[in-house]
Amino acid sequence: MAGNVDLDPSTARSSGLTHLESPDGRSFVAHGPVAERPVPGDYLEIEGEDGLLAFVEDVVDVGGAGDGAGFSASGTLVPVGGASRSSRPADAPWHHAVVRPTRPDAVQRLLSGSDPELYLGQLAGQDDVGVALVPNRLNRHTFWCGQSGSGKTYALGVLLERILLTTRLPMLVLDPNSDFVRLHEQAGEAEPGQARALREREVVVLRPNDPDSPLRVRFTDMNARAKAAVLRLDPVVDRAEYNALLRLFDSDFNAVEAEKIVPYLRSLGDPDAEALAQRLENLGVVEWSTTWAFGGASATDVIARRPAATVLDLGGYDRHEEQLTVALAVLDDLWERRAERRPLLIVVDEAHNLCPPDPETPLGVAVRDRLIQIAAEGRKYGLWLLLSTQRPSKVHAGIVSQCDNLTLMRMNSRDDLAQLASVFGFVPQGLLAQAARFRQGEALLAGGFVPMPSVVRVRSRITPQGGTDVPVPMP
User: Fold this and answer.
1) Which of 18, 263, 287, 337 is the most exposed place for a label (fewest CB within 10 A)?
2) Of 111, 99, 117, 199, which Cα lies nearest the Cα of 158?
3) pTM of the prediction?
């Protein structure tokens, strides 16, 4: 922002033109008549200069009513690729330059890449300006939020499709509501070229009750902390049982068949093993037949070979504990393999289910803590998070603060918008303030994965959405 600049707004208003002042050639303040008033997110062009655009970040009304009314806008000067360059030195100041609303083709050069498959949608209010994804900036954590009914899940599906079509970045989708289980299918309205391109990408969907692609993990592969979390064991408070667990899994216990685990523990004649058997029975852990792979294939085996996308249908479980167990086993395995430095985008839909500020169980704490660790350290190993949720306050602040990309859909809560403003300081306040007025399917995109902060009307999906709203019964 340009700060305080001594301009006479009446000069602009009396001339019927908008004038711009930039002391540093980077930020600006512009004044003009109310009839020319822009809104945050608009672009202005400087008369006689096609190598720069003025991106409007904030606008305030000045003066009185009638002929005395005007506006003051502030923002950033942005170089435009593909335009002829000015002979002016970079960062040269501007004084009383005349500016006006820019042509769509100039904005198109700024916001769009060369491949239309990269477009996430059209700039709101300008159907002929597509806003492109910057795929090589997906190597940052992304926060994706919007209140119920804003189109958040649908829009996230669009992004996942764009990633599949335009990059070779593997994805892991933790899907608690079964919204993305049809990511491997094509909608009837998909263009033949896009449908063919998607068919060439390997998308694996693992479901708890699918005999061909079951979603299972191996208890024996989990580390000691994870096993203890599943069994709600504290290494100090429950030290005898915890120690028995460590000793058993250092023995030939791994060869015992699932249905014989409890009898085996009782056959040992060890009071600590007996207590462990009672705990297993009380929690019903052995009965989680759709969770445990035992000696079979695990979801971690599939993810390790890096298909284009692996969707884990966590919504197929009856118990939240089973969702947490699978998520923990997968995230721990990725962390154990982090030194391999194999890129992976970890998409966590409804992230408040896995990383709330205050989990209620040891299993929930273990999952949250692993996600905090990945958020803090995962980038250098190629593990990048994309967290989707309805409200920022429902996700642990230590994870949200590590995100460099933001997608914001309709959000009415002033407290939530204030929190986002405090975390994502690079997002213009004037754009954030518009979020309460977004229509369904409109989103504010900001951060490195788009060329400029933009309000976008998200394009149509080419894969079916897995989950849908329940309709109101009608006569």
Assistant:
1) 263
2) 117
3) 0.90
